[in-house]
Specification:
The chain is of the alpha+beta class and 235 residues long. The chain contains 5 helices and 13 strands. Helix content is 22%, strand content 41%.
Length: 235
């Protein structure tokens, strides 16, 4: 319960703990009802178990994502769609998401594209229960640099997924934007940057993060540095 906490206090309380996802597969009585409840400000188009989410006020597409749902005796599962494509050195997701991969070889583009596509989709579901379906638990060392009112605090976290679960709780119901840039090779390894914002639709309050990712030789994230600014003025 975050009601009486500041984000700083939430981070200090949980940043050294191992946080688990909620298991919601058996709790949904209606797929469409669940999606409408979790994303009331999105235009949701569904066909044959494929669901397109487009934010009504996010005109640049930085909050859009696409999912597939599967219902079985074990409950309901959601997964990011694997329908990405590479066109002219750009990773294309849906109609409005484009990430330049021009600084990578064509071979590395093909290898890294599905990983980046899933990362984008997962982050854009932050602030909702849908996030628990998409998050992959990890043990990625993460350095968080937290700013509020001009003051900075540093937190070392054992897992990036733990930080995201904390933010998912704090950002419940907010409008999420996540964009990826600067995908390049540095000393033989892939690095890239992302911008992440969470805006309260009622108050306009916004938290903003700048994130740097480093990948290992297996093209998996092995280090994250996240600079988080709480309660900044919305652009």
């Amino acid at each position: 319960d975050k009601t009486d906490l500041l984000l700083r206090e939430l981070i200090k309380r949980y940043h050294t703990l191992n946080i688990s996802r909620q298991l919601l597969q058996r709790s949904l009585s209606s797929i469409s009802g669940f999606m409408r409840e979790e994303f009331p400000r999105y235009r949701i188009e569904s066909r044959g178990g494929v669901h397109n989410f487009a934010h009504r006020s996010n005109k640049d597409g930085s909050g859009d994502f696409r999912l597939a749902s599967v219902a079985s005796r074990d409950g309901v599962s959601f997964e990011p769609l694997s329908d990405w494509r590479i066109l002219d050195d750009n990773l294309m997701l849906g109609d409005r998401t484009e990430v330049s991969l021009s600084l990578l070889s064509s071979e590395r583009q093909e290898i890294i594209a599905p990983y980046l596509a899933r990362l984008i989709c997962t982050h854009r579901a932050l602030g909702s229960r849908m996030f628990h379906f998409l998050l992959m638990p990890d043990n990625i060392p993460t350095t968080l640099s937290y700013y509020r009112n001009g003051k900075r605090e540093l937190f070392d976290m054992q897992a990036y997924s733990n930080l995201l679960l904390i933010l998912n709780t704090w950002w419940n119901g907010r409008d999420i934007s996540y964009t990826m840039t600067d995908v390049k090779m540095v000393n033989g390894f892939i690095e890239f940057s992302c911008s992440l914002s969470a805006t309260d639709p009622a108050s306009g309050k916004q938290d903003y993060a700048e994130i740097r990712y480093h990948l290992n030789s297996e093209n998996m994230i092995d280090l994250v540095m996240l600079v988080l600014h709480e309660d900044v003025k919305k652009d």
